[in-house]
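Lab manual, section 2.4: Encoding a predicted structure.

Procedure: take the sequence of the chain (309 residues), apply the prediction step described in section 2.3, and record the output as structure tokens. A sample record is shown.
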Amino acid sequence: MFAADALVIQAAPVPLHPNEPENRALGRLVYRGGLVLTASHGEFGGLSDLNVSPDGRGLLAISDRGHWVDGELLYDAQGRVAGIAKGRLGTLLDFYGKPLRGLAGDAEALAVYPDGSALVSFERRHRLWLYPPSDPPFIHPPRAVPLPRRAAEMPENGGIEGLLRLAGGRLFALSEELMDGRDTVGWIGDGITWDELRYRAGRDFKPTGLAQFPPGTRHPGDVLVLERRFTVLDGPGARITRLRRSAIRGGAALEGEELAILRQPSTVDNFEGIAIARGPRGETLVYLLSDDNFSMWQRTLLLMFELTP
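Recorded output:
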């Protein structure tokens, strides 16, 4: 068993629209604060998905270098996200309890079960591993969950980026780069058998994250899809759509309702993680997390929004 390292995370506030710092509107979302996250630990970064507890207090993230980060989310008097306390950083383990290294540790998607188990999708070497509940997380070896049959066709760097355990227990997964024409291939299943479906992202966008509305929020059971793009002319961009839970079934051709698009000159980076929580007033909170690729030209951003009526 490997212990977690204490992690001090520095958080600097950032406006949504640097040219209009008082403007908090983004489509159907209202900005509730954002942070640039840094830490002195050499393995902090590359965060590729996150989970936020239903009450908005706990954060858990995974990285594409085989690590995990967790902590307690802090808020200011106006309810804006303000920092992360009690940070920890640890290593994902293989079947033998050994730390994952190199390409074997390219974790891209995270689904947390009600009992605290955590299902992780890896690419490069495509697989799904289910880690048992523990505190700290990920300190016990995982077991394999069978992949959908066509997952073997996914490009090496285009595996399952969207992963979700739906209320009721079914798993919902979207690949990033396995395509049927314009549509991304996805699956819904019980972790043993899978049915295919299709998802149509926005032009030049690819799906990178999934989150389900918890009970007590505005659209309980529905799903948000986070999409990402990068073009030479426009730079990075992100798009958020909503899927009705009743539409997510085998054979479906899904196309979400667009809620927001984030593009330059607004605050945007390589967003890969999305989560939803219920705020103290019953409001629906949406969190976005970016992967800095351990690059000096990119940032780890944690942005928070409220979904409007």
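Check your result against the sample. The chain has a mean pLDDT of 96.
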